[in-house]
From TrEMBL:
Its cofactor is Mg(2+). The lineage of its organism: Bacteria, Bacillati, Bacillota, Bacilli, Lactobacillales. This is Lipid kinase, YegS/Rv2252/BmrU family. Residues 3-141 form the DAGKc domain. PANTHER family: SPHINGOSINE KINASE (PTHR12358), SPHINGOSINE KINASE RELATED PROTEIN (PTHR12358:SF54).
Length: 318
């Protein structure tokens, strides 16, 4: 793409970040106008609308190299826009991001400012797209592919997301570590989540777990609104990191969680298993909760294949 500034298609979820995105958007527009930026903007009106808007945009503009599509919201909004572009054949349209959600894990993962106005300024200074890894998963029984920037969880982290999302009122969720709703969801999920049977297959190894508890396939360092599950995740290595934590008692789990938040020593625990791979297959024997980028995946018996692709981002490289 030429070094001249592109035209930005802003897809804004005004409800992200407990409506923070709706409040910050007018300030973003003031900046865009002051800096004479070419842009169009559209607001999402309901869950899933970001997918439709991005898909329709891609169908019309996938061959036009002058556009950058920017998701304004949280990790869920980014997820919708990424997948809408993919569905519309727009995998080559650069994707920008202004974090305005609650958790903003992707922004943390690529060291983008989590403060929306600072991230806007950085977006406007980018000169050319940067290719970064994106995870892809597909249920073996259907042909639908889903892309993800952050992570896919089965078991405990997904149960936390289900507990948090199911409990939210009018989408005013505050999904981050400091919120009482989040802590309540953690406790509820811990009490409800049972150990489950899981098969893991990578290009190098096959392993079976009889009491898997937390199963997270991640592209970035963080999940759950700033929890560094995989301190060494790399968005350019063409690989995904799978972390399997086996079921343990609550005191040991709290210790592990504190290690995750502080030292990263959780990876040395005998109940934590780490796989780094470009291809992965995960299968559960029974239906379990799932999450992708903090959004619910319907409870199901998982039979998923994962791989990695790369796509252009309009982002200052991590
Ligand atoms: N107009 C709308 N009304 C209600 N919900 C919406 C609307 N537009 C989008 N959504 C939904 O809002 C949900 C939350 O969005 P998002 O994840 O971006 O914000 P967040 O949860 O605050 O941030 P994060 O995921 O970073 O914690 C998504 O599931 C999305 O589908």
């Amino acid at each position: 793409m030429a070094a001249s500034r592109p035209t930005f298609m802003m897809i804004v979820n005004p409800f992200a970040g407990a409506e923070h995105a709706g409040k910050i958007w007018p300030k973003i527009e003031v900046q865009l106008k002051e800096q004479k930026v070419n842009y169009k903007a559209v607001m999402t009106k309901h869950p899933g609308h970001g997918v439709q808007l991005a898909r329709n945009f891609a169908l019309q503009h996938k061959l036009d190299q002058s556009w950058v599509v920017v998701a304004v919201g949280g990790d869920g909004t980014l997820h919708e826009v990424l997948n809408g572009l993919h569905q519309g054949g727009g995998d080559q349209i650069p994707l920008g991001y202004i974090p305005a959600g609650s958790g903003n894990d992707f922004a943390r993962g690529i060291k983008l400012p989590t403060q929306s106005m600072a991230a806007l300024q950085q977006l406007l200074e980018v000169q050319s797209p940067t290719n970064l890894d994106v995870g892809v998963y597909k249920n073996r029984l259907d042909s639908h592919e889903t892309l993800f920037t952050n992570n896919v969880g089965i078991g405990f982290d997904a149960s936390v997301v289900h507990a948090a999302n199911d409990g939210q009122k009018d989408h005013l969720k505050k999904y981050h570590l400091q919120s009482s709703a989040y802590v309540f969801s953690l406790i509820k999920a811990f009490l409800n989540q049972k150990g489950f049977q899981l098969s893991v297959e990578t290009a190098q190894t096959k392993q079976r777990f009889s009491h898997a508890f937390l199963v997270t396939t991640t592209n970035i360092k963080y999940f759950g609104g700033g929890v560094p599950i995989m301190p060494i995740a790399d968005l350019r290595d063409g690989k995904l990191d799978l972390v399997v934590v086996e079921q343990i008692g609550i005191l040991r789990f709290v210790k592990l969680f504190v290690e995750m938040l502080t030292t990263g020593n959780h990876l040395n625990s005998t109940v934590v298993h780490h796989f780094r791979t470009s291809q992965l297959h995960l299968e559960t024997d029974l239906p379990e909760n799932g999450q992708v980028n903090g959004e619910n995946i319907q409870k199901q018996k998982f039979n998923l294949s994962f791989w990695v692709t790369q796509r252009p981002f309009w982002i200052a490289g991590p």
